[in-house]
Write the structure tokens for this entry.
Amino acid sequence: MSKPSIPKGTRDFLPVQMVRRNYLFETIRSAFQKYGYLPIETPAMEKMSTLMGKYGEEGDRLIFKILNSGDYLTKANEAAWAAKNSNQFTSSVSEKALRYDLTVPFARFVVQHQNELAFPFKRYQIQPVWRADRPQKGRYREFFQCDADVVGSDSLLYEVELVQLFDEVLTNLRIPDVTIKINNRKILTGIAEITGEADKIVDMTVAIDKLDKIGEEGVVGELQERGIGATAIEKIKPLFTLTGSNESIVASMNVMLAESETGLKGVEELKFVFDAIEKLGLKQAKLQFDVTLARGLNYYTGAIFEVVTSHFRGSICGGGRYDDLTGIFGLKNLSGVGISFGADRIYDVLNDLELYPDFSSITTQVLFVNFGDQEAAYCLGLLQQTRNAGINSEIYPSNAKMKKQMKYADDKGIPFVVLVGDNEMATGELTVKNMTTGEQSNMTITTLIENLTNE
Amino acid sequence: MSKPSIPKGTRDFLPVQMVRRNYLFETIRSAFQKYGYLPIETPAMEKMSTLMGKYGEEGDRLIFKILNSGDYLTKANEAAWAAKNSNQFTSSVSEKALRYDLTVPFARFVVQHQNELAFPFKRYQIQPVWRADRPQKGRYREFFQCDADVVGSDSLLYEVELVQLFDEVLTNLRIPDVTIKINNRKILTGIAEITGEADKIVDMTVAIDKLDKIGEEGVVGELQERGIGATAIEKIKPLFTLTGSNESIVASMNVMLAESETGLKGVEELKFVFDAIEKLGLKQAKLQFDVTLARGLNYYTGAIFEVVTSHFRGSICGGGRYDDLTGIFGLKNLSGVGISFGADRIYDVLNDLELYPDFSSITTQVLFVNFGDQEAAYCLGLLQQTRNAGINSEIYPSNAKMKKQMKYADDKGIPFVVLVGDNEMATGELTVKNMTTGEQSNMTITTLIENLTNE
């Protein structure tokens, strides 16, 4: 029989990985809660109608569909079968699908439960999502998203606190050299407006987005290729040399966008966030305006966020303000803003830089060696005491060779091993071996417990 | 547009439910870890070949299958289509399915990763599973299982610690009137042996299992119907009147099963667990022999557990020893023992009896009222201080009417509201309203933080 395996693009998590991932999720979770965000969960499966048409044609294709139960073929689409049209056929044999992200289920949730929620509704959600993407390094078919959103208010105080939240989580995770990039969709609209070619906003932002990679000349070339006129390009050019403090950038943008009401509004919103953060300070991250930031252009309406560290290619977090998330489900004009932590990317950074704390208090701290029935019976009483004191502990299950028992402690990373033989049972002084230093010392169970709970 | 909804048998969890469920899972998780069990996770999807044929025909039917991606119809089974044979058709268009329980994925995991694990391998796993069952009260299509297992040892010390683990978790959850029922598959085999009709073990246990419901006479009738002979029935009868202490029951069983080696072995195993637990004591639960306990007869080989409380109809936990869990994946003779907490049933009991502690330290503790831009700016600084002190806190996002802001605090169950106007900004003495008592008092931010962190 060949070894069993799992579907490609999915992962098993072994204890050492789980302990690390739980640390990551716990750090994010506790920061979310500190900022007043509360957890929700939605089912893995959503109705097909909830998901389809929300992620574009490509997204629809990548959604995992679930076959109807029972004799589903009786309702299968004969014409689609004859035409071998898999897409059409699917909708006749499948009514449910696995969630593709947390955003659409969240929008569905808010509309469905609108009468049970306190608005502004601050929620976080940490759950896996599934995509039938081609698996490759760092891209999985099952991966976790960690989102915090608030809907039902357009207050910029939330943009401020979400910047703080990025900073707090990534500082607590000790990820170095973090930059929180911020832009505003209204500024992008303003730029398109002042060029006189407002309809070309997508072409412009796609080109400007490449500034880092292809430089000023490259961008100009791309703008020309995309049919942006020379006058317009002249008006865009000052963007390329925007440098200096956030304050001076705001001043330049105000001049540049003087003719666009929307653009000025965007600068004002940006300034509000800058001023507040300037006053409050950040723990570690830098907050930086980046006019080339144009993610989610088709749904973000205000602030746009992206977070990077020099230790990872690509962003590790993102987010922004949207004005009509729940509109697709019939609840209009509910403004919201949210952020998302790329858990699997951050996990990679934590692993690469070995940023984990000591986990020995989560894994087993003490192993009682088993020298035989009588000794084991004696140790069960001690074990009960360590466990009652909240110390993760266990006994080796059989009177195996010492070497084997010590190897078990080693493999499991157990820092303390307790040896109890005739002597120890007579005196009550246990022999305790520190597996890190190799040192052995004698102490009562009370002292051992004191030592370990004071650690 | 009609309100969106979710597939039947699935659930959304709102914050108030999530906080309760997280408490439940956290309590189980921390006890598992205290006993040396470490977390693993497996993917939601398994290969079809991993799952099919493991749960019987009915189980196969209830597994949710995932449609292959892309142009899957090109590989669809034409003959199955023509015959409208949905079952056969499925295997040609679906290679993956959602896990049906945690046991089979765990067996697959152990075999797949056998060279990376330290044996005996103690793992716990808390994840959702999916079944295409007909939904009804208390039965869902997506629900959580919480399993702890140890594989790679036949030591009875694990039976003892799993009994302690049941007791620990349910005591910590404050579930009253808990009985841990224990039986042993070898005793059931022994009973069948001494009757001289060993092949009728299933019929016998099915009948004996009804003792509670239909009484001694009923069981005798059922045994007759199932073709058990009169001599056999006479030998079974003493079981019906087994009462008294666990010790006296063990003594009676030893007499009754004197002719069956297997049966005596079962009694010996049972006695080992009784003696150890007698010596160690349990925090709250009772441990009780129950010869009618016959769950998982086709895979349990030693101890069989079931846990009940008088506050729930049906069992809330189960478990047992198995000798060949991983055999189905080619790794033979790996003995294991495991238990499972019925999270959704326990959740129902916690709700019915309102056994939850105070959650105000998890949800937001402090709301800063927003009296306008200047006051809000001032409060942001205070908010930063409370958050840095680890206090979950937030500010209302806009200068809305007082009544609206207080309603928000109420709806969200926030216990303290801070009011900062001109006076407060001038003196630094905040007005703090206790939402439970209605009392208002003045204090500095330092005092507020001290009060809340000492709580």
Notes: Chain A is about 45% helix and 20% strand. Chain A touches chain B through 107 residues (CB under 8 Å). Residues 70 and 93 of chain A are 10 Å apart (CA to CA).
